[in-house]
Write a sequence for this structure.
């Protein structure tokens, strides 16, 4: 499994997407933070935490789109599935490799508050909890994108389906939808929206319900991906 | 080592394999021959557990290749049809990855045996078809499998490269059972000890390789015409 993880990380870093997208992502989020510092005069991570999920639902499908779909398209899936690895080991290795790149990308953005922490007063426990929330959100997006990649043999289609679906899930809590739906539906959609759950973390609160939401979301699609790989027609 | 009993495989309403039964024992070199679309690849995929039979049973080392895949796969080496390889990887990276998963400790020996040291540092996309085939064979050989399943290993190769691969198969077969599929009849005459002839999903012949030059071709043409 370690060998598969290593191979996946290497393939991601050798691909243009795996190399450039995380750097652009980190630079853009870094810009958002420093903009607040110099333009508004406030050293706050709030704008960072509110924009990051909107970028993650593009970054993560971009990194995971080829993971399984390309194996299907080029038929290397036949080699992979005849190696002495269980389907759960395969999914874990693929998931862990993409998550490592995402975590490194988020880690790069952490350098900015660390630098500004010497100049301004930043409350670090709140920032750390916010990052934990972003990592949990990333895992949810990742397990979903990996599942879509396992269903389709075209990586562009896998990317499009993941981005559109994650966009819809992310906008569930939008004011527009809330205003046209009945109260029960509104409450459900608000609960189902990852943005709402991330908000708690961004405020520095580790909410059990929100943690469970991310864990269950991740597990459901993670297990569905394993099931998809186990499928023999 | 391999046993197929009354195996049928349908894709929708189309039957790719019907009532296929044969066994492969230790030390055999089985040439699996049939025209394009005869069901050779489907049979290979059924043996490896990549496909589930619609009817009948497939046993590999007396175990089910799907539900007990983790105990049978370490003993199996498989070269799929068209030899799919990750073209963005270097030969070295790919073989080190495969050997690590299959716990192969003597990769250097395999590299020497298959004569791929010259291209070891190259990317897969830079290799000729012949070299790619050797890399695919090297990957299949990792882990010292008891059975090698080679799906059209000489397909698309020029005659010189075909001879190289045929010699390699003969060399590799000294230590293990080999089943290779092909539609090139001369390969069967040169390499196999036993012949399976398949057409339209049905087994037409199962027996030792007929003796004499051109005898496999004669038998094949006769049986195909009849079917």
């Amino acid at each position: 499994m370690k060998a598969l993880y290593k191979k996946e990380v290497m393939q991601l870093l050798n691909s243009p997407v795996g190399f450039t997208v995380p750097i652009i992502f980190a630079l853009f989020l870094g810009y958002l933070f420093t903009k607040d510092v110099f333009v508004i005069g406030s050293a706050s991570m709030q704008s960072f935490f509110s924009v990051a999920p909107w970028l993650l639902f593009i970054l993560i499908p971009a990194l995971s789109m080829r993971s399984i779909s390309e194996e299907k398209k080029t038929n290397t899936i036949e080699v992979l599935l005849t190696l002495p690895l269980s389907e759960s080991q395969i999914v874990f290795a693929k998931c862990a490799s993409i998550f490592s790149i995402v975590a490194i990308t988020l880690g790069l953005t952490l350098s900015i508050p660390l630098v500004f922490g010497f100049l301004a007063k930043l409350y670090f426990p709140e920032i750390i909890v916010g990052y934990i929330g972003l990592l949990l959100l990333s895992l949810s997006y990742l397990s979903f994108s990996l599942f879509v990649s396992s269903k389709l043999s075209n990586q562009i289609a896998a990317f499009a389906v993941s981005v559109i679906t994650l966009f819809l899930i992310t906008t569930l809590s939008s004011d527009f939808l809330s205003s046209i739906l009945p109260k029960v539906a509104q409450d459900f959609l608000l609960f189902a929206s990852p943005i709402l759950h991330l908000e708690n973390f961004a405020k520095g609160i580790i909410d059990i319900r929100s943690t469970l939401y991310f864990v269950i979301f991740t597990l459901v699609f993670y297990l569905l991906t394993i099931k998809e790989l186990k499928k023999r027609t | 080592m391999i046993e197929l009993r009354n195996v049928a495989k349908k894709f929708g309403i189309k039957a790719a394999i019907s009532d296929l039964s044969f066994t492969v024992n230790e030390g055999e070199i089985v040439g699996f021959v049939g025209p394009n679309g005869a069901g050779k690849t489907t049979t290979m995929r059924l043996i490896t557990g990549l496909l589930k039979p619609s009817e009948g049973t497939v046993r590999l080392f007396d175990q089910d290749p799907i539900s007990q895949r983790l105990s049978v796969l370490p003993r199996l080496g498989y070269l799929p049809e068209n030899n799919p390889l990750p073209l963005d990887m270097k030969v070295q990276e790919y073989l080190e990855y495969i050997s690590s998963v299959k716990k192969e400790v003597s990769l250097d020996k395999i590299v020497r045996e298959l004569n791929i040291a010259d291209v070891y540092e190259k990317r897969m996309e830079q290799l000729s078809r012949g070299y790619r085939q050797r890399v695919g064979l090297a990957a299949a050989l990792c882990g010292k499998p008891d059975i090698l399943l080679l799906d059209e290993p000489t397909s698309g190769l020029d005659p010189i490269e075909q001879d190289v691969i045929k010699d390699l198969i003969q060399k590799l077969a000294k230590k293990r059972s080999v089943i290779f599929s092909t539609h090139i009849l001369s390969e069967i005459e040169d390499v196999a000890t036993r012949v399976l002839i398949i057409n339209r999903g049905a087994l037409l012949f199962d027996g030792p390789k007929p003796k004499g030059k051109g005898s496999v071709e004669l038998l094949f043409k006769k049986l195909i015409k009849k079917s």
